[in-house]
Design brief:
The chain has 271 residues and is of the alpha+beta class. Helix content is 29%, strand content 24%. A hairpin with a 2-residue loop joins strand 14 and strand 15. The longest helix is centred in the N-terminal third of the chain and has 23 residues, at 2-24. The radius of gyration is 17 Å and the shape is globular.
């Protein structure tokens, strides 16, 4: 439990960084500025960025910033945001060796934003699909229920069809940002491992307005849709405890969304 408390501290830092980024977003802002804002919040909190230098080639930034047809792993730099762009931001932070990881998507505000109503629906649908997946993390159940819940929500949504990106998944998280088990965003025949108290995972559906096929760009990181359709991405880090769930990267521990779905919320989240 002590380790999960530290992960909560990392989750609070991630939330603060994403909140600061969201407040900075606007037409004319370049994506490199968003990265600088997140870096300042993380380092001021005494934490360490999870993403910077990660992988091969080493990721060059503190956050992933993906715009429009970019699904995930976008590299921030000199790209200037335009009103109506769909922006996805992913952030990770380390506190005392333990990770937190979360992401959100938004429409860059401005006059053009009202001209793309389907983008707003896509963002709302993706966020709610994430909560459907989180809600499926009932102790004693199977991990495959997460992907089934996400798939069912998206498949049954009246404003579909929506593309569910495969090949990029949620994951276990702890002393490493990416650990076992893999958390799929779609239904499979495999039921997956049994969900037990102490399990910590990141649930992160990626949804497209068109076809779900993707390609990796020349920077060897950015994942974009093949058909140029726009995409959305939401993520939270979640701990499964004896008495319920604790969403470590949500300011209220996930209490509002989980209670609305009649999912047990850990007393730690409400404390």
């Amino acid at each position: 439990m002590a380790e999960i408390r530290v992960m909560r501290r990392a989750g609070v830092v991630v939330h603060a960084a994403l909140t600061a980024v969201r407040a900075t977003v606007g037409p004319g802002v370049d994506t490199g500025e968003l990265d600088r804002v997140a870096a300042d919040v993380i380092r001021t909190a005494g934490a360490t960025p999870s993403f910077l230098g990660y992988g091969s080639p080493p990721f060059p930034a503190v956050i992933c910033v993906s715009v429009n047809d970019e699904v995930v792993h976008g590299t921030p730099g000199r790209q200037t945001l335009v009103a109506g762009d769909v922006l996805s931001v992913d952030c990770g932070a380390i506190v005392d060796g333990w990770h937190g990881d979360a992401a959100f998507s938004m429409i860059v505000p401005g006059v053009a934003a009202v001209d793309r109503p389907r983008d707003a629906v896509m963002l709302a649908v993706t966020e709610q699909a994430m909560w459907a997946g989180i809600s499926a993390l009932a102790p004693g159940g199977r991990l495959g229920a997460v992907g089934s819940a996400i798939d069912d929500y998206l498949s049954d949504h009246p404003d579909g069809p929506w593309g569910i990106v495969e090949g990029y998944t949620g994951h276990g998280i702890g002393t490493e940002m990416h650990e076992s088990p893999e958390v799929l965003n779609h239904r499979t025949r495999e039921r997956g491992m049994k969900v037990r108290p102490g399990l910590c995972v990141a649930v992160e559906p990626m949804v497209t307005a068109g076809d779900a096929d993707t390609r990796v760009l020349d920077d060897q990181w950015t994942v974009a849709t093949v058909d140029g359709g726009r995409a959305a991405h939401f993520e939270h880090t979640v701990a499964v405890l004896d008495d319920g769930l604790w969403v470590l990267t949500a300011p209220d521990g996930g209490a509002a969304e989980l209670s609305r779905r009649h999912i047990p919320v850990s007393a730690y989240a409400e404390g």
